[in-house]
Every structure is written in C-alpha cells, then in structure tokens.
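User: What would this chain look like folded?
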Amino acid sequence: MRSSNWNQQLLEAQRSNISPSVRLLNRVERYCRHHDKCERQYVQLEAFQALKERLNTQQLQFQKTHVVDTKMIIKVQYENRKKYIKLQAADFDEFISEVREKFSIPASNITVEDDSGTEVDETVFAELSAVAGICFVVKDGLDHDTSRSSTPSAPLSYSGSSLSVLSSGSDSDLSRQPKRMKIDEEPLQSALAKDLIKQILQTKSGGTKVLEEYDETGTLCDSTRRQMVNILAAYMVEMEGRIPQRSTKEKYALGIVTLFPALKDPFSTKGYEHFYDGQSGSGFLAWRLKTIQRKTKIEFREFKIQNAGAGGPTQERELPSAADQLDEERCKELISLMNHTTDRETVLQKMKETFCYRQRLIYNPDESHNILTVFPRLLDTKGLIDQDFSLLFGAETAAKLLEKWPTFYKEKVIREAERLTTTSVLQSLLNSARNLYNDESSEDHREWDSDMASFLLLLHLLPPQPSKKKKQKISAAQAMEHLVVFHKSNNSFEEHFAKQEGHRQPYLLASGMHKSAISNYFIAMDKMIIPCQGTTSLAAIDELFKAHFVFSVSYDDALSNMYTFLQTTVYGVDVDTTKESPKVKELRAKFMNRN
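Assistant: Here's the prediction, encoded as structure tokens.
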C-alpha cells in the first residue's frame, strides 16, 4: 500500500468520524517513525495521533460493556430448574429482579442460599458471585421440594474478564464441593460481621465507650451492653426500616460475639442466640427492635417460628420397660408396709422399688395432686427427694450443685453482683455473702448466711421477667420471698399457712431465731412441709430445686430465670431442649469466658 493511499484513508476516516483499523494505524506509525520525509507523504502525524486516541477510547468503552456482560453470568436454581442469569453488575437487588422475571416468581418473599444451604444477602452477594462454580438456590417461602433437581450443571470458571464452562466432574467431586465452600465461608461471614459491628460502634455516639470498656475489663456490664444493643438496633432500623431482615439480625448477633468473644454462650448452638435467636424471634436485639416498633405506633405482625423448649421439670421422663417394673398390687403392698414401719432404711428401699409407680401417678393428671397422700413418708423421712432425683438423672448429676457452687459459681455470682446498681437490700446481701459482718453486729440486722445470700444475689442478676399475663411486675427484692421465707422457730407452721393466700409453687421455710442462724429448712408445698435432709442453706436450695423434678412442678414465674440457670448451667439437665431467656445465656457466657 502506497503512502498516498494511507493518507487518503486517514483523511476519509477523520471527515466521517469513523475510527480507522488498528492495523492501518500501526503501519502508518511505523512508516512515520522510520522515514524522515513524512511531510512529503501528506501524512499529518497530529491527525494520526488524534485518530489513534479516539480509537483507543472507543475500544475501551466497547470492552467495558461487553466484558461486564460476559463476566456476570450467574447460575441459579429454583425448584427443579436451573438457568443462567446475566447481570450488568454484582447488584443483589438487580439479581432478585432478574430471578423473578426469569422464573416467573410472583412471591415477594424470596430468599437466596448458596449450594451449601447458607443464606446469602446483599452484603456478601458481590463476593460470592465471583466464586468459581457457585450456584445460587432461590426459594419463595412456599417450601418447594428441591430434592428432585436435575443433574448439576457444569460449574463456571472465571479467569479475569473471561468466562468458560467446565465439564462436570464425578458425583463425589460435586458432593464435596458444598462442604468446602461452607468451611471457607464461615470465617468470612464472621469476619465481615465483626468488622461491621466495630465500624458502627466506632462511628456512632457512645460506641467507643463500649469498645473501651471491653478492652479494659474483658466484658460488658449490663448498662453498657444495653447501650450497645440500642446503638446497633437504631442503625439497623436506619438502614432497613422498622422490620429488618432476619439475616441482618443474625449477622449483627454473630458480629457481636465475634468482636466480643467473652459474650459468646458456649452452651448454645451458635453462641449468639441471647442476642438474636432466629427460631423463636427472641434476644436482646429482637427485644429492642420490638420496643422501637411499638413506640412508632404502627401496627405490624412479624412472622415467628415458635419453638418453645420442652425441657424442664414438667417433661415426662423415660422409665424402665414394663418387664422391669412392679405391678400395681405389689406397689400398694409396699406402700402399706412403708406406712407401718419406722425404720428409715426400709422406707428408703421401698420408696426406691415404687419409684416407677410413683412417677406414673405424678404424670397422671387425675392422681398427681394426691401424691403426698399416697406416699405420706415424703413428709417425715429425709432424703427421699434426693433419692428420686438420683434415680431420674444419676448420682453424678445430683451432686453437681453441692460440688460446683462453692468452688466455681459462688465467687463469680458475688463479683458480678458487685457491678449492679447498689441498693440497701443488695448491699446487705453482698455483705452477708462476703461475711463482712463482725461479731458485734446485731443479729436482727444481718441478712442470710453466705451461701443463701449468694443465691439471692443470683436472683438479682436474673430478675423476674415481665409477665405476659398482665400481672403486676415484681422486683428481685420482692421475688426473694418466692424462694425462701424466714420462719421464727417459736411460731407454728399453721399460723404461717393461715396467712398465705392462693396457690404457691414450692419454696423454702427457714426456721430459726434469726436469718443468719437457721436450725432447719423445710420445703413448703400445697401448705404442707417436707423436711430437708441437709441443715445448710446450700443443701436446702439443692433439695428445693430437685423437688420440682421429683413432683413435676413448674418453676415459680418470678424464679424461672434463676432455676433455669441452675438447671442447664449447673446441673446440665435438658440443656438442648430447654427454652432459656437471653439473660440466662448472657450470664452463663460471662461466667464461662471469664477467668
């Protein structure tokens, strides 16, 4: 090609605003650089440079548009169908819109999961969409069966801006892939959630105080924890409106226990259920959000899956097979024998033999109220409650409170109670628990002994919850008499029960001349008294707790949090099936994670 032809093509391209080919430009550039007489060839280098720059700009724009279209091709499964969806960018809202259109999904409540079953939201969609081989599973809340899906499509492989389709591997390779992804994603989710919580606290008013207190003390006091929850709930509402997504609340709860490991509950499945439990819709974050929603005075109803725990003292236990049990006639003979003997060992043995029969009566609604009439030796023979509890759960479980309270829990309860807002009652209990009263102190002004005071401090740490039955709310100080009542030894029990109104759950009667020196403890139930085997307050609390399981009696509402803590955390009974309040989980996390 002659130079005049080059010049003619360049001028025509310039006049028509059409970019010349790259090949032509390169040849002209080489010619101009290697020939001194470029002006004689009628080639204007400036015109050439301008045209080349315009070509480069147009090529970049063309590449951007077409590369994005190719890059964002995502595989999606809905029910038993799989399709590819093309996106302009890794935008979650655009993805949902395209999914609705592609699969003709009318439902507005669409959830997205990866192929390991982990829920995906807008915060991680961009990162996950770039993962090789990922297939997003879309559900519309109608509980479709996806088990009949077709053979998995070939995974997509990304390399820079290009996309290629790989051939399907073996079934074993495909079955292993979700596990690998789940392992990879869990730390990523925790790290992202942790960074989010930290960023919110660093930028919002009062948040730095939360971070500083944790750095200094290794935990958060109740007031600071409430402040943190308020900050996070307010930010959540600011970002997503009055009813944030469940995945958002779970992400915030995960971020809290990841950023503050001492707040993680080691006994629960995920460790953060006391901040938000997606199954029951409870937790500190959920409660604060409900308060915000209530104050806005806009009626709404948030769908929740009720999964109330079935564990606790009223749960019927599995008994030995019928072949190992005595028949009813033989049991009645043994009951008659017990009622006519004064030998304690004989009574203990016969009560052990009639244990299964007694349990059947207790769980029979027509017979349960007569249990103390059918077995009157419960009212005058010490040790029978402990024996029945051991038959239910074993000797090791039965001994846990007596072994662990003095050596592990008592000191932690006292130290945590010292962080509460001081009242005269609380200070008196702390003095008793620490044995700070001297010999010259008036016995009339002293509170309970050290062990009993520590349990009453636990009640202050786990106070009564607001009742749904619109009963008057009671304080922790008022709830103390639901646990133990002082009874002067020179007064009759008949006088005490005569003053009692209505039905009460089991409680302790502490008999003595003053609270700090009790001579005998009794369990009061149905206006009758059962003598406690032990003479110490620790042994009495142990026996009172066990009585709930032995007689299948529910906890007093005012003491439910305290008893649940003892049940799941100390005794380890029905840990997986008992519904716990966030306060119980939070306190356990503090005790287990603090030296």
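The chain has four domains: 3-69, 72-169, 176-295, 397-578. If you want, I can go into more detail on any region.
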